[in-house]
Design goal:
It contains 56 helices and 2 strands. By secondary structure, the chain is an all-alpha fold. Among the domains are: 246 residues, no CATH class; 200 residues, no CATH class. The N and C termini lie close together (10 Å). It comes from Brachionus calyciflorus. Belongs to the exportin family.
């Protein structure tokens, strides 16, 4: 598109018409495409600045105004090296003047103008330093009158509208230099952006900080002088200005400061992540100490907040700088060895906080922001700092925090709106976690000799701990104390919902949603055990008695369901909820809840100390009597189908726990009473009156009990409570009774809750916990009840086995095998034999019968069981696990052939093979001949799997439109399987060494050893033709696929060249597609990462002119087009530099030919531009003596030899090329 003044008006009319068509919903595709083409030509046109000015002055079309400003920005950045020195300042001034004079601009047009001005200002920075200076130079006298200085000088003499625009412009400038997702990429390297940011920070940013402080101070003082104490009484424009200033302060305080040791950390990629996560702390460098540690800064910000508290919108923007200031840390305190500066800051901040909130209750809309403020303050405050602050001030502060927490508990429970409820929950969660973690995150040691620290620790936790715990418990419990006369207390769901949707998953939801909160409540409870544990135990005992009484009345009165609904439903519902929460809370208090399965669970030292302290007060006769009751079952039912449920422990059910009994034992034995009452209710056909939610949380509690307390080894503790040792100790009579009780309960749960998947899953985890415990294994070996689980399990047609989920079956069989501790056990061998027989039986079934629903369920059940066997495998049991698994792998391939249309079975088979990789292949010792044979057989099965999977997936090259990604779950699993196989770290050298040894020493074995990489490459050969454009449009699939290619090429580039040329060629085509596909930065990154290893191997092997060289040359052209014909994503800039260097090493003359042809084709008509670009390329790759040869250039071959120092030099030159020349390549 060419411009001449006489054609401006006609062009304006044409573009305005195109703008109307583009934004109109009612136009044809042809009209829209033609209009979009006009805008593309407009944006790509050369030097459109005069016409853009004309458009801005003569059109009212907002969309066109936006596109015009965008065109000015794009064109100027593209032509930067060619622009006269005075053009950019003139454009900046024009845009700002236009913004001031035009009163009715849309917000998005305003933002684009401000961003363009800021972008030009930042781009100037790139020209003011060299890369090696890291932006450390100071502004010269000539540069002092910069954009920021001009804005600050202009502010005081301007009206409110101008002031708002100035604040918006400064905000845009900060955003551009912050190197976050708010800044423009500008086609420059990470280092260039960092250098510009560093220079800005050391100069203009200081001026902005002083400006916002002085401006805020002046505005607040003016409001006070005019007796304005509430923001609601000022005019709209003044209020908007104040909000703008608060935004500017907040953005300034969110600045991530640079320093020489943080160069890599602060590059754009990382900053984008941190900005999105909103985790940037305020960490100024020492040169900003005077500003941020000024006591008047804290006072001013809190005073500002007081004035605007009553206005929700303004208060939100006003408190953000305070929240950010509360994160103050870093090198600003680096010389503060006596913590004087930190203490002074904390005192000022806490005092100002109390002055604001102590006598003015925190409003609902303030709660979340105030919680963020408190959270940050606690996270940045150590106990050493707190110990040096006046105790009265500290006590007032934590008293205020506690009061706020209690109010949040109450408000969250009272909320009917889920959104408001979540707001309060998040508010108190932040404070609880930060407060309870102070001692851990800051290295508090209770054994420390610093008595001041210990006293402060007691002050912070003990004084308020019980108050917090009690308030939280009250907020979770819903059943009223006054329950003597049964009445409907409040609305609730019916019994059917209790037994189904509501309670089925709430326990797991609560464990997940409240996990961090429960950890925090645990810490507070452990600091107030003398009060917390008796409260929880008493409540639990009361709730149990209430539940038992209601169930007894229901049974005695023989009420109908309708009558029960009317009189008892609400009570049962609320009691179940209360018991559920008490189990969760005290489970966290009593046990160490580890998220990592391999970690050993020990009794917390606080619990051990508390139990030892009260051991003398425990009534030993009562305790022994209670222990004996665990074994006092009575035959009360006659159910032939469930013989284990005929005997019920009525004495345990009816036992009433004394109020003064050991609260730890009281709670645990009450939980055992709950398990027995569940058994009894099932036998009475009353199970539907109980909650699966309670059953699940109870099973979770018992699992933690079995992992932490039961059979606890004395050697793991420096001291041990006599009571806990007596009741739960290893090989004690009481411990054995409790273990036997739990085993019986596990089996019963599989019967009575077989249809409740979440509950049976938790029950299976109890089984897994006790089976993994080596101290219990001797007891389990001869336990009849324990092995009766295996007998029920092995009979697939017997209840409850048919109702249990596949995952539960997998956990059960895994547990039973693990319990043998690797020793050959008759029961385990019997389980494996039965499983083998059931698999073998499938071979004798007619193919048509295999498609029946019952047979499909049988296959799925067997595969889940086999996955359990595989998960249980370890180096101690390989001798009898491998003979079971190997034939099943072969059969799994056959089953895949039969059931290739059944997605669930296909996924189970792929998961089985994935488990074999992780659990079997990693356990095999390649120095043992028999293990090498096993490994070879496993890899043979993998090859068979690939062959069958490929056989039934070839048709997927053509897929239906609008198909969902779930359709490709099996393909995704297959890709994941190959990546997992790659990641087991069988590198080539070790594998070749092992193979050579086996060849020399074991010729008689006649083993044709298969290499893992060959299996992976075979899988890749099947995948590459299949992964067409239609399939790769799914993001998850494409990422996993290109990740696989990157992994293979990075570690095995030599293998790629040794396979067939067809595989190599299709691999290169896949990489090309990944680069050009538009599937996202991650896919392009994996594709580019695949190139360097190929180039390195090709260069070292001198294969550039071989058959393999041709497709790589073609790939080189694709990469050159990516870099020089399209704008590079900033995240890929450094990677592109490395890839380009590797390519030039292999094909220097191809690069020179491309550049010469590129310049000739694109810029032959513009000699000035052509000369600039040629100079840039000369500087990038040519010898210094060749810099004057403009017509053509030759590469300095001595620099392109893959040496690290030369690659680093090239990266530096490429960075300079990007600043001075790169933008010119896109001028048309």
């Amino acid at each position: 598109m060419s411009f001449s003044p006489e054609n401006f008006e006609n062009l304006r009319l044409t573009i305005e018409q195109a703008s109307k068509i583009v934004i109109s919903p009612n136009v044809s595709k042809e009209q829209r495409d033609a209009s979009e083409k006009i805008f593309i030509e407009f944006k790509e046109s050369k030097s459109p600045y005069d016409f853009c000015r004309y458009l801005l002055e003569n059109t009212k079309d907002s969309y066109l105004l936006y596109q015009t400003v965008s065109t000015i920005q794009t064109a100027a950045l593209r032509e930067w090296a060619l622009l006269p020195n005075d053009l950019v300042p003139a454009l900046q001034n024009f845009l700002f003047s236009f913004l001031i004079q035009t009163t009715d601009l849309e917000k998005y047009v305003q933002r684009q103008i401000l961003q363009t001005i800021a972008v030009f200002y930042k781009r100037n920075k790139f020209d003011s330093f060299q890369s090696k200076t890291l932006g450390s130079q100071k502004i010269t006298d000539e540069q002092k009158n910069n954009l920021v200085t001009q804005c600050i000088d202009l502010f005081s003499g301007s009206d409110i509208k101008m002031r708002k625009l100035i604040c918006s412009l400064l905000l845009a400038v900060i955003n551009e230099f912050s190197n976050t997702n708010k800044s423009t990429k500008l086609g420059q390297s990470n280092e260039s952006h960092f250098n510009a940011k560093r220079s800005f920070e050391q100069n203009e940013f200081k001026s902005i900080l002083v400006f916002v402080y002085e401006t805020t101070k002046g505005l607040i003082e003016s409001l006070i002088e005019n007796n304005i104490t509430n923001i609601c009484s000022i005019d709209k424009d003044s209020k908007e200005l104040l909000i703008q200033i608060f935004y500017l302060i907040d953005q300034s305080f969110n600045w991530e400061f640079t320093s020489s040791k943080h160069v890599l950390k602060n590059l754009i990629g990382n900053l984008n992540q941190s900005a999105q996560a909103n985790l940037v702390n305020l960490e100024p460098t020492p040169e900003f100490k005077e500003f941020f540690l000024n006591p008047q800064l804290v006072e001013l910000l809190f005073k500002s907040y007081e004035l605007v508290r009553d206005d929700p919108d303004t208060s939100h923007s006003s408190i953000q700088p305070l929240i950010q200031l509360s994160t103050l840390k870093g090198t600003i305190f680096q010389d503060d060895f006596e913590h004087r500066l930190r203490i002074e800051f904390l005192i000022n901040y806490i005092q100002a906080f109390l002055n604001t909130f102590q006598h003015n209750p925190i409003k609902d809309y303030e709660s979340f922001n105030v919680s963020c403020l408190i959270e940050n303050l606690l996270l940045q405050s150590s106990l050493k700092h707190i110990a040096l602050i006046n105790s009265g001030l500290v006590e007032n502060f934590f008293g205020q925090v506690t009061s706020f927490l209690v109010n949040c508990f109450k408000a969250e429970r009272a909320c009917e709106d889920p959104t408001d409820s979540k707001k309060y929950l998040e508010s108190y969660e932040k404070i609880l976690i930060s407060w309870s973690n102070m001692k851990d995150s800051l290295g508090y040691d209770e054994q420390s000799s610093n008595e001041i620290d210990k006293k402060q620790f007691e002050l912070l936790y003990s004084k308020y701990a019980f108050q917090i715990v009690e308030a939280f418990i009250q907020s979770r419990l819903s059943y009223q104390e006054d329950h003597e006369n049964i009445q409907i207390l409040s609305t609730g769901s019916d019994l059917e919902s209790i037994a189904s949707e509501d309670d089925l998953c709430d326990d797991d939801d609560d464990l997940h949603r409240f996990k961090d909160i429960l950890y925090s409540i645990r810490d507070f409870a452990r600091q107030s055990l003398e009060l917390s544990l008796p409260l929880i135990a008493r409540l639990m005992a009361e709730k149990y008695v209430q539940l038992a009484e209601i169930l007894k009345q229901v049974y005695q009165l023989n009420l109908t369901t309708k009558e029960i609904d009317a009189q008892y439903e609400k009570h049962l519902n609320k009691l179940s909820e209360d018991i559920h929460w008490l189990l969760l809370i005290n489970g966290f208090v009593l046990f160490e809840i580890n998220t990592i399965e391999s970690e050993e669970n020990l009794v917390p030292k606080e619990i051990m100390s508390y139990s030892a302290k009260i051991s003398q007060t425990v009534d030993s006769n009562l305790l022994n009597s209670l222990i004996l009751k665990l074994n006092e079952t009575t035959q009360v039912h006659n159910q032939p189908n469930y013989p284990i449920l005929n005997s019920i422990n009525l004495n345990l059910i009816d036992f009433k726990m004394p109020n003064n009994f050991d609260p730890i034992l009281s709670f645990i034995f009450t939980s055992l009473q709950l398990t027995e009452i569940e058994n009894h209710m099932f036998s009475l056909n009353m199970l539907n009156y109980l909650s699966p939610q309670v059953a699940t949380s109870l099973s979770w509690f018992l699992r933690e009990l079995s992992q932490c307390l039961l059979f606890m080894p004395e050697s793991n503790y420096s001291f041990i409570s006599p009571t806990l040792q007596h009741v739960f100790g290893q090989d004690t009579h009481s411990g054995c009774l409790i273990l036997n009780f739990l085993i019986r309960k596990i089996l019963i749960n599989f019967y009575i809750w077989s249809s409740e998947t979440v509950c049976t899953s938790q029950t299976a985890k109890i089984l897994l916990a006790i089976s993994k415990n080596k101290n219990m294994s001797r007891f389990l070996m001869n336990n009849e009840t324990y092995w009766s689980i295996s007998r029920v399990m092995t009979n697939s047609n017997e209840q409850p086995w048919t109702l249990l989920s596949s995952n539960v079956k997998k956990l059960i069989i895994k547990s039973l095998i693990l319990s043998s501790s690797g020793q050959i056990n008759t029961n385990v061998l019997n389980i494996l034999q039965v499983l083998t027989n059931r698999f073998d039986a499938l071979r004798n079934v007619k193919p048509i019968s295999l498609q029946s629903e019952s047979r499909i369920k049988e296959v799925m059940s067997l595969l889940e069981c086999l996955n359990g066997v595989i998960e249980a495998s370890n180096k101690n049991n390989l001798s009898y696990i491998v003979p079971v698994v190997l034939p099943r792998l072969e059969q799994g391939v056959h089953l895949l052939d039969l059931y290739h249309n059944y997605g669930e079975i296909v996924e189970l088979i792929l998961c089985m093979f994935n488990g074999v990789i992780e659990k079997l292949l990693t356990q095999l010792n390649d120095d043992l001949n028999e293990h090498l044979i096993v490994k070879n057989k496993i890899l043979e099965c993998f090859l068979g799997l690939i062959q069958i999977f490929a056989k039934h997936n070839q048709k997927r090259r053509i897929i239906e439109a609008n198909i969902e990604e779930d359709y490709f779950n099996d393909l995704l699993l297959f890709l994941t399987l190959l990546n997992t196989l790659h990641n087991i770290n069988y590198d080539n050298e070790d594998e070749n060494r092992i193979l050579n040894q086996s060849t020399n020493q074991n010729d008689s074995l006649n083993v044709n050893q298969i290499k893992i990489i060959d299996v992976i490459l075979t899988g890749l050969e099947f995948l590459i033709p299949l992964m067409n454009q239609e399939i790769l449009k799914f993001q998850t699939l494409s990422i996993e696929y290109f990740k696989l290619i990157s992994n293979i090429v990075f570690n095995n580039s030599n293998k790629i060249f040794n396979r067939s040329f067809d595989l190599f060629n299709t691999l290169i085509n896949s990489i090309k597609y990944g680069i050009n596909s538009g599937l996202g930065v991650e896919v392009v990154r994996y594709s580019l990462e695949s190139i360097q290893p190929l180039c390195i191997y090709m260069y070292k092997s001198n294969l550039q002119e071989s058959t393999y060289g041709a497709p790589v040359k073609d790939l080189f052209s694709t990469v050159l087009n990516l870099i020089f014909e399209n704008s590079i994503e900033i995240e890929l800039f450094d990677l592109c530099s490395n890839v380009l260097y590797s390519f030039i090493c292999c094909f220097p003359h191809l690069f020179t030919g491309f550049v010469n042809q590129f310049i000739q084709d694109k810029f032959s008509m513009n000699l000035q531009l052509k000369e600039k670009i040629q100079q840039g390329f000369n500087t990038l790759v040519a010898l210094p003596t060749q810099f004057q040869a403009i017509s053509n250039f030759e590469i300095n071959l001595s620099m392109f030899n893959l040496e690290k120092r030369n690659r680093i030099k090239f990266n530096t030159k490429f960075n300079e090329f990007s600043i001075k020349t790169y933008g010119l390549l896109f001028i048309r």
